[in-house]
# Entry
Amino acid sequence: MHYVVFQLDGRPMITQDSAAENPLVKELEYALPFMSAPACHVPDQFRILVESLTDHAVVLIDALGHVATWSEGAKRTLGYKAEEILGQDYSRFFAAEDVASNKPKRELEEAALDGKLQMEGWRCRKDGSRFWAESSVSPFYQANGALEGFVTITKELTQHTRGDVLLGSVLDHAFNGIICIDEHGIIETFNCAAEKIFGFSQAEVMGRSVNILIPEPHKSNHDGYISRYLRTGEAKIIGIGREVVACRKDGTQIHIEIAITEFQTRASQLRHFVGIIRDISQRKQFEAHQARLIAVLEATPDLVGLAKADHSLLFLNRAGRKMVGLSENEDVTNERFEYYYPGRALERILNEGIPAVVSTGVWSGETTLLAKDGREIPVSQVILAHKDADGEMRFLSTIMRDLSDQKKLEEQLRQAQKMEAIGELAGGVAHDFNNLLTIVSGYSEILLSMLGDGDAKRESVLAIRDAGDRAAALTRQLLAFSRKTVLEPKVLDANAAVRDTEKMLRRLIGEDIRLTIILDAKTSWVKVDPAQLGQVLMNLAVNARDAMPSGGNLTIQTENLQLDQGYARVHPGVQPGQYVLIAMSDTGQGMTPEVKARIFEPFFTTKGVGKGTGLGLAVVHGIVKQSGGHIDVQSEAGRGTTFRIYLPTVKNGADAAVELDDASDLRGTEAVLLVEDEDTVRTLALLALQTHGFRVLAARDGEEALRKLDDHHGRLDLIATDVVMPNMDGRSLVERLKPRFPHIKVLYMSGYTDDAVVHHGILQEEVAFLQKPYTPLSLVRKVRQVLDQRQGKSQAMRPFRN
# Structure
């Protein structure tokens, strides 16, 4: 009889002596009979013994590595039924990668060679799950020394039984997740913090591939990292602070920060990795939210700044850096915000702003910011306090809006309002003055026609006429400045208008100044009063000449330009569109900002007494504005001046008006209705028209004209009426007469423009107008011109009834 004897260290041996016959056997832990047979027959007594080892998996393997029998504990641990595993290869209990590396066979060979093999490693259940186990493999032999088989005893180890209990406790109480894997990516350790991070229990992941924690798109990257490290030892693949995307049990993706370290145990030849893991999903969400917030702050056109409670800067956005002249790379952190205020503004912020913020949490007001280059920038500012739950100041925030453009617009508006008020006054004065000048100039002309060349009184009358002419010129300038003069615009070529004034300008500026004219051949057509445009060029040339007493260069250029919305926003009254630019530049003395701000004001001049009225540039400004254009000036002291005139373009010059020549014979026999409320002017006009043969029906105002027409049965060819009159103005009178006499011709006369006749001073093409003051001859010439403008005979007068 042979016996299998298990020694105290667990190793089996075969003997022919029973425990009763052999004293040595009595000292052994147990012994049981074992029948040696080629099929490794297992006696019932052995089965009874191994079944008593409930927490061990005892498996008997024959010399070929096939399962001969196993214990009930093996069934519970490995999950197989006896009929499913008996006769099967021992490698069924190993993971696929271990089988591929021929590990089961190597273990048996080492056990046979050394007499016993003890190790820790992964074992695999029937369902594929893995568990960490402590195993021993011991060979047993026949009496003749031939290998009979192996006895394997395997015990599943929990995390605490695999290592030190204290270490396991430390792992489970760690704040960070800790995961250990072997070089095949199999999870060996999974602490409590890791369970919270990933949502898996330890039992669900132990012995499984770490890929269950990695989202599908990232799995290949992870496998590549490990394999590349094992192959190359590339240090950057593992280390501290790697941020990766992981996957929770419910499928949600999270961001983790992982530090990886390699280690190797004496019980295993495998290389292992331990990862210290921190869930940074909330931090990443905060960073993303912060990035979005910063992107918004960087995109805002206003200055946005943050400062600590001690006033040192934390943040200044892109617009703020640009406002104060800092580059994007300049570090402003820890600079005190006081550096960016000039003295008076800083005093206000410290004495008013900060105390208000501390007490109420907010302060707002207009102040001044100091740029890096010393510029002072007007700003509208809000300062906010940010406090913690205890009321302690954590930090300050501020928002500032640059008011430079707004202040400029406000100043331009004030200037425009001032100019408008002066213009209204000037226009009103000119209206009344023109009636007086009409009388002075008219009767002077009549007196001169009555006096011979040798008459001693002639010189006195000439002096009166000349004074009247100069006064008339002055009123015309006042009306031009106030935009109350009447323009007769024509569609013309801007280049031609400049060329027409070239000879006059050359004589005007003198030989010491070189005139250069550069004309763009593609310049569009404009609609402007030719005479007024000539006056604009003349006035600008005179100013340029006076700015270059020692000579210099004067350049006139033309070109087409598009003025966009951006330009219109900073130049009130400018409509975006296509314009013709006429620019006049000189190399003269230039202007200081103070002088430049007032150049278009009437009667403002830097010239000496008697050298100018101060109306030249005011007239230029008025004419350009009244023509629908815009004028801009650029000048610096010592660097010359450039005036830019922008006139709106028209489509083409096909509709250009043709100026009718005055008739050489001014006499006429037509019937004229003359309506004028100023008695002396009416008498003068009546005398002038009757002297040249016209038949005149004169009236004080519109109502009197209607009464006289009601009793008049003769011909009526033209109405010559003042515009502004009491009771009924000239336009109303014409509207009353037109239904009965649709073909009657009309001449309006006024010393002041009126919207009833002209639109903002622009004469309509079908309207005939005579600006006061006028002379008797100019009145007769205009009447003759209006009568001769169209072919056809005058309408016979029909009785007028109300």
Summary: The chain has five domains: 3-157, 161-285, 300-402, 490-650, 671-787. The chain has a mean pLDDT of 78. The first helix runs from residue 23 to 26. The CA atoms of residues 54 and 73 lie 5 Å apart.
